Structure formats: C-alpha cells, structure tokens
Amino acid sequence: MSGQNLEPADNVVSKETRRRVIAASFIGNFVEWFDYAVYGYLAVTIATVFFPESDPQTGLLLTFALFAISFLVRPLGGFVWGHIGDRVGRRTALSLSILIMSGATFCIALIPGYATIGIWAPILLLVIRVAQGFSASGEYAGASAFLVEYAPANKRGLYAAVVPASTAAGLLLGSLIAGLLTVLLSSDAMQSWGWRLPFLLAAPMGLIGRYIRTKLEDTPVFRELAAEDEAIKAPVSSLFRNHWRQLLQAVGAVLLNAVGFYVILSYMPTYLSSELGLGETESFLATTIALVTYIGFIFLTGMLSDRYGRKKVLISASIAFIVLTVPAFALLGTGNFLVIVLVQILLGAMLTLNDGTLPSFLAEMFPTRVRYSGFAVSFNLSNALFGGTAPFMATLLIAATASDLAPAWYLVAAAVISLIAVSLSRETCKEPLRHE
Which residue range or ranges hold the Major facilitator superfamily (MFS) profile domain (predicted)? Predict the structure, then answer.
C-alpha cells in the first residue's frame, strides 16, 4: 500500500453520495462562516456596546483587535484538528468543529454590555472569540479535504470551490441580516438588543449542520488507509519533517487569500461607512450585491482551474491584484454608489481567482496521510498572521498614513508574496491524489 496513489474511482462513489457530501460541506461551512462573519459586519455597533468610553476610531480598533486576537489560536487549532482529521477521520473533526462554533457564537448573544458588567464584557467577548477561532481553524481545511477526496479526478477544483462559495454565502446572509437590522431598528435598539439577534441563530443552524455531517461516511481514501492501519500516529510531526517545503509554499500562497478575503468581504462595509462616509445601509447593500456575483465567479474559477491548472489561475490572481488594487480603491473614494458596487464586483472577481482555486491547490499539495494537517496548519498560520489582523492593520494604516488607499497597498504586498510562493510550487491538478 505504501507509496501508491489513491483516487476515488467513479464507480466506487455514487452520484447520490457525492451530492450529499456537497450538501453537508456547503451547509456546515456556511454555518461556521455566518457565525464568524456576523462579528465583522456588526463591528461598529459592537464597539459602542463593549468599548463605550472610547472615541469611535479607538473603539473600532479595539473591536478589530479582538477579531485579530481570536486568530492567534488558529495555528494551534490547525495542529489539533489536523491531528484529529488525519488520525481519527475527516468527518469526526468536522462534526466537532461545528458544535464548538455554534455554541460559542450563541454565547456572544448572551454577554451583557460594558454598561452592565464593565471590563468583564470585553473579557468574555475575547474568550468566546478565541473559541470561535479554534473551531474555524478546522472547518475550511477539513471541508476542502473532504470534497477533494470524494470528487471525480477531473472535477476536484469545481468540487472544492463549494467551500469558498459556502463561505461567501454565510457572509451574504450575515450582510443581509445586518443590513436589514440597520434599516428596521433605531440606533438605540441596535445597541440595546438588535445586534444580538444574528448570534442567536447560531444554535439551530449548527445543530442542523451537525446532524447532516453525522449521516456521512468518511472519505474513501481515508477509510482505505484506516483499513490498512496506515494512518500516521503523529501527522503534524511528519508534516514538518517530510513536507516542510510544501508547507512554506502553502503559507505564502494563502497570504493573498487571507488579506484579500477579510479586507474585501468582511472589512469593506466598515471601510465604506467609517472611512469614506458612505451610509451604513448603502455600505451593506454594495457588499451584498458584490457577494452574490462573487459566489457565481467562484464556481467558474473552480472549473477554470480544472481545465488550465491551479498555478496559472493563482498567478493570474496575484498579477491582477498587483496591477488593479490601488486604482480600484481610488475609485471607491469617488463616493458614487454605482461605481462602488462595480469596483467591489471587480475586486470580488479578482479574489475568486485565488479563493476558488486555493482549496484544491492546497489539498492536492499534501499526501493523504497528512492532507488535513498540511492544509489546516498552512491555511491557519497565514490567516493568523495576516488574515485576522487585516481589518486592524487596514484601520491602523489609514490612521498612520492619513490615506484611504493604505489597505490597497497592503493587498498589493500580499499579492507579491503569493505570486512568488505559487511560482515556486508544482502543478498538481492533472495528477492523482498521492498517498505518500
């Protein structure tokens, strides 16, 4: 068995099973990232509830600092979930992670504000955000590995694109709910109780996602390894010892995704309203429209990566960001709503070239015995260092430079590093999944 390539043949996995795998991966990841994203969309309101005595910009910085701190636990989570996913099973890791995320998010809705319990309010918020970060560290990697290992050999890119599409769908629902609450409720009502409503949805959605995932078998290649008792006892140790080059390349490749995702899809409503003076309702509406188109572009990108290769699409994404990001952000400053929507659609389309290709690229980069660990560690390490800090860094850079274009230059720098990392990697889309 050792050294062989493993691939789920089409006659081994039924179409019905694959449909259920897609549905379970989509719903589970959707729930995880809806929970995680609501915090970003309601950052301005949360800042006033938990940091009421700060000036607006300082309160926003503190809110995003909590957002960033929750990412620091993600590399640790990557080690833990990677070990569980490669040693015990992908399904087990995914079923546990969704329970932790949903429970933590539900608890955010129950925290009293600063006016009620003082400094304990932000402390409790921090603890729960850390739990969310730990949970999220296992979700994206696990769902991607799950889909790639179930997918037909010539459609791994398209199948894996379900993961970022479900992430965007979770963001979309978060944006819609936040925008609707902003329209329907007064500022006082939002600060008093309105902001808590989206977090309360976490519990029922999480239980549904958990139920669906427990009804699936683990992937064929993992079950074959388990049957032969070839699962590595210490997958993370093997990862660093035998696959450190791929790990470094993966961390660099993820960097553009980490910064771009949180700047363009999570931080953007706050940027438009707090930095450019656009109304909160218009900011949410513009982001919502962009997210709808983004989901469509994701699947197109997955198909393009299956046809032309992962490297070509990822390199195209980096070049597009290097050339177009600063002019695009300059156009956002015009304040014209139609222009803002078109620019966000453009930025989202550019991001999908990276985001829609990355799950299959990372999953194929590592062999089956350390696939979950390799994906989870590289993805979460890059996100901890650069993704979770992106909203904070964007706000800080604007304050330090007095330039609204500062986040754009930050994105350009991320694109340059990702371009180098991807260029040094090898193409894997036409190869069978490796066991060793």
Answer: 21-430
